[in-house]
Amino acid sequence: MVITSFLLFLGKKWKGIDCELFLFSPIGDVQQGYQQNYEVYPLYKLQELHDRYHFDAVIVGGGGILHYASGKQLLDKNSTEFVDYKVFETWVIPSLFAYNNKVKLIWNLPGGFHEFDYFYKPLTRCLCTTVDYMSVRDQYTKDILTSCNIPADKIYTCLDSAFIMKTLFKKEDLMSIKNKIIQSDSYVIYHANIHLPENEIPELVENLYKLKCEGHDIVLLPIAYTHNDQAILNRINEYSINTYGEDGAFTVLGENLNMMDIMSLLACCKLYIGVSFHGAVTALSFSNSAIGYDYMHNGKTKDLFKTLNIPQYYITNSHELEKTIQSIKTTELQASDIISQAEKQCIEILNEAAARAGQISETIF
To answer: Cα separation of 104 and 78, whole Å?
Structure first.
C-alpha cells in the first residue's frame, strides 16, 4: 500500500491489516514526518516502486491539497533557500497513477481551499473518476467538488479524523511530554504563520499581554518551520518587549519540536488562539477553549467552527479579539459541553466511515 500524505494515527488504526506502507510526498528524500523517522519517497518514484512492489492501493491523506497550486518552502529547518513545492501533485499524480495501473484509490479526508476556476472544473471531474472511495473533511470541500459535476452521492463528508486523537492518546501522557517543554500549568497558545499582516500585530500583542497579566503564560508556536513562520513570531515578541518592556516577553518555542511535542502543547493549553485548522481541532478535541483567528479567511476553518456550533469563536481580524476572549471566558463551560457533543458525533461519523472503508479494504486484500 502507498500513502501520499501521512497521518500519525495510521499505524494505530490499521492494526489487523497485514500490509507494508510506503510514504510519498511531492519532493521526498528530505527530513519530513515531524521527526517521526519515516522514509518518504518523492512522487516521481511512484511508478518505479509500483513496478517493483506491486502496490494494492493508494491513500491520499488529509490536508488542504485539493487545488492546482505550488508553494515556496524550505526543505528543512537548516535550509536558507526556498524551493517550489508542488502541493497539487499529492492528489493529481495518484489519480493518474491509479488510472494507468488499475490500482484502488482511496481519499482519506483531503480538503479544498476555494472553488475551482471554470477552466479546471472538467479536469478535476476527470481526475476524480479514478477515486474508488472519496471522503472529504467538510461540507465546504464537498460543495467545491459537486460544483465540478461530481455526483454528491459519491462524496462522503466526515469531521476531520484528528478529532479522535483523544481516544488514541491519554491526556496524562501528553502532559508528561508537555512538561519537558514548558512547566506552566496555565498558558495560552498563539499559533501563526508568516502571512500574518503587520498591521494586525499591535492589537494582537495588546490582547496577549492582557492575558499574561491575568496570570497566563503566552506561548508563540509556528505553523511550520519550513515556511519561515518563526520570523513572524520573533517580530510579535519584539513588538511586545518594545511596548511593555521585559514584562512583555513571551515564550517563543524553538525549532526542535516533533509532532508529539506540538500535540502535547495544544492538548494541554488553557486557550488556543490561531490560524491553524488542525491546531484548533487538537485543542478542541481535548475540550480546551479555542478561537479561530483566521486572518487568511480559510473556508475550512470557518466551516469547522460552524459545524461545531461555535461560530462566535471564529474571527478574521485582531479588532475582534478582545470581545471574543471575554465571551469565551464567560461561556467556557457551555462551549465545553458543545465540544463534547461534537466529539461524540465525530466518533459516530468516523465509525460509519470506517465501515464503508472496510468494504473497500476487503476488495483490496
So the answer is: 38
